[in-house]
Design goal:
This protein is mainly alpha-helical. Helices cover about 60% and strands about 10% of the residues. InterPro entries: DUF6063.
């Protein structure tokens, strides 16, 4: 029990255990008796332990009020005066970023190594500008999101404007910084580009990109792309 608790504490503090950096923790984790206890912790405390090559990760369940992100947390990460629509827009931007990185259809879904911020802004412009009224109604009904309000919020912003912190560029940078604080992305080239971390690569490949999740996320963006072609 003591070893299982130590591993749980380590995962809570660091989010991961690596066989090179934390060899004793990793060896204890591989002990079948310890794994049985950790499996009980997962059920009772609302999280999953994800195994990747050389590393294990702790991922909270979406309904875990203690460990997972809530909409309130995202609003506060934007600003003290951020509204619900701002938080929803941030969530959508993050979805677009993840799709741009991991939207491949090959065995390895990761299709690029880095993204320029200006390219993310351009992609969001395309998605919001080409969404038809009927498409926005459909998205709102299906996902209970005010997509039209988000689109208006995005379109009202300038691309880049000195002295302003509510430009499209800055909104995307805030979404990137949220991912960076979670150790999922890193900046490159003086915040002009972002790249994924090993943590995000592992979590996407070994957990988030199972068949059901891929089908649901890909469907959203494929429909957007079809609308843009028509």
């Amino acid at each position: 029990m003591n070893r299982a608790l130590q591993i749980y504490k380590k995962l809570l503090s660091d989010g991961q255990i690596n066989d090179k950096v934390d060899p004793e923790f990793y060896t204890n984790y591989k002990d079948p008796d310890v794994r049985v206890l950790l499996t009980e912790f997962e059920k009772e405390l609302g999280f999953r332990i994800i195994e990747a090559k050389h590393t294990v990760y702790l991922v909270p369940n979406s309904d875990n009020d203690l460990l997972s992100f809530r909409l309130k947390d995202i609003r506060e990460s934007i600003s003290s005066s951020a509204r619900q629509v701002d938080a929803f827009l941030q969530c959508y931007i993050i979805m677009v970023i993840l799709h741009l990185f991991f939207g491949g259809k090959n065995y390895d879904p990761k299709q690029i190594e880095f993204l320029q911020i200006k390219d993310i802004v351009q992609k969001l412009d395309e998605k919001f500008d080409t969404a038809s009224e009927g498409k926005m109604d459909e998205l709102e009904e299906r996902y209970s999101l005010n997509f039209r309000h988000m689109a208006n919020q995005w379109r009202a912003k300038a691309a880049v404007q000195d002295g302003k912190r509510t430009t499209k560029n800055e909104i995307v940078l805030k979404a990137c910084r949220l991912l960076i604080r979670q150790k999922l992305m890193d900046f490159r080239d003086n915040e002009r580009e972002i790249k994924t971390t090993k943590r995000l690569d592992d979590l996407m490949r070994y957990y988030y990109l199972d068949e059901k999740r891929v089908a649901e996320i890909t469907a959203i963006f494929q429909e957007d792309e079809k609308d843009a072609e028509n």
